[in-house]
Design goal:
mainly alpha, 16 helices, Formate dehydrogenase/DMSO reductase fold, about 350 residues
Length: about 350
Amino acid sequence: MNTLTVLTGPAFWLPVVFIGLMALAFFMYAILDGYDLGVGILLPYNTPNDNYEAQRDTMIASIGPFWDANETWLVLGVGILLIAFPAAHSFILMQLYLPVTLMLAGLILRGVAFDFRTKAAEDHKNLWDSVFKGGSLLATMAQGYMLGAFVMGFEQTLAAYIFAGISAICVTAGYSFIGATWLVMKTEGPLQMRAAKWARLSGWLTALGITAVSIINPLINPAIFAKWFGSSAVIVLLIIPVLCGGLFILVDRHLKQVPHTHDHNCWIPFATTVAIFMLCFMGLAYSFFPFIVPGQLTIWQAASAPESLLFIFYGVIVVLPTILIYTAFSYRVFWGKATLLKYY
């Protein structure tokens, strides 16, 4: 097969399509499972003067109809990585064996705790709430560490480990941020006001983390520095961080005014946070494309045979719209403020 055929035929455009689908799956996961992980992290402990069991019930009820289905996007993303880019899947999973194991342990703990808290004896409910919180935190920290390790190209150096640790904290703050804005949208009264305070604090921690990563990453990676600052498109590219900063200011100003009259605009903080996440994903995609393993494997080097990708592509045409329609339908059915879950 000559070079021209590779550049113009299915061997060129199919890997591009599948890396786009994988990016979509991971973005949807970061938004949808991100907010319910964030809600889990934010579950308040009881204090000597206050019992927050009712607030924890409402918080978990706000994610009850969605949290399990939200993880479908993680399965889809990893499935695309395995089938469409098997060489990258083998390399990445080999490098991330321990954090992937910890993430799965956290997700399992969440699943067990979610069911047990509603059916266990009343005096055990606080224990399962703590397990749900701990599982959420473990899964989130593991995902943040994996992102940091990916950005560093899976280097085995002290600097890479420190960067991955910073990334774990930043992702945890980001999930807490979107989880708190979800609660602002789905709850009311004292819990909504408390969620607004959580959102403001975690929002600025997220902004600080994004700023730190955005500065550190180009400084330690000359290729990324050249992509962002080595061309005449730098003015256009700088729109992304400027917009991101503006959205952080917008959401903070809106959260200051919670609760609003009649609560009509309670969706704005969550929608703004989704936009911030989207801008961050766009920045990451631009920084690393066309590499699927930074500095080592491009999407074309890691891709399956064009014939295999074309066969899978026909299946994706059916499966992906089905998942999107189901997701939209479920959120439409359970639109509005959270109500307590009931098991009969």
